[in-house]
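Section 3.1: Structural characterization of target chains.
Under the original work plan, the team committed to producing a structural model for every single-chain target entering the pipeline before any wet-lab resources were allocated. The record below documents one such target. The sequence was received from the expression subgroup and is listed exactly as submitted; it comprises 157 residues.
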Amino acid sequence: MAGIAHQGPAIMYRHPWPARVMTSAYGFSPDALRFLEWCLSCLEPLDIPSGLKMQLIARVNGTVMATVADEQAVAERARGLPWSEEQEQAVRRAYLAGQVASGRYPHLARLLAGSPAPVDPDEIFALGIARLLDSFAPPGAGAPPVTGSPRSQKRHR
């Protein structure tokens, strides 16, 4: 499933429409059924109930689609800005710093003052997928190591 998760964004960057239409509202197309069957065959050795396998497939797909849809929206917005993406990020950082400094957001202030979380989108994605997969492991099963994601090679901005 990790391989599926890491291949998904590359496919969606080549074909941007799936992130907008892959929803249960449209039912199952022949391609969706083949994909589901392939996912289930990959999960055959996993000793969890069938319903949990379907949930796992749905959560992985949902995570991939939400990640890609967000990145596509950010890229689309950046193309429409009258200034650079770097300038936009600088303004956003200054706004956030001012809001945090106001004292109205003490939990956020402590979080931001602590050790930094990963900021590399590929690292965040890989970590999130690994944690998601770990959450479906049978009790007592060892968690696989977190591996990097090939997504950065496929990103189009």
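Residues 78 and 86 are 10 Å apart (CA to CA).
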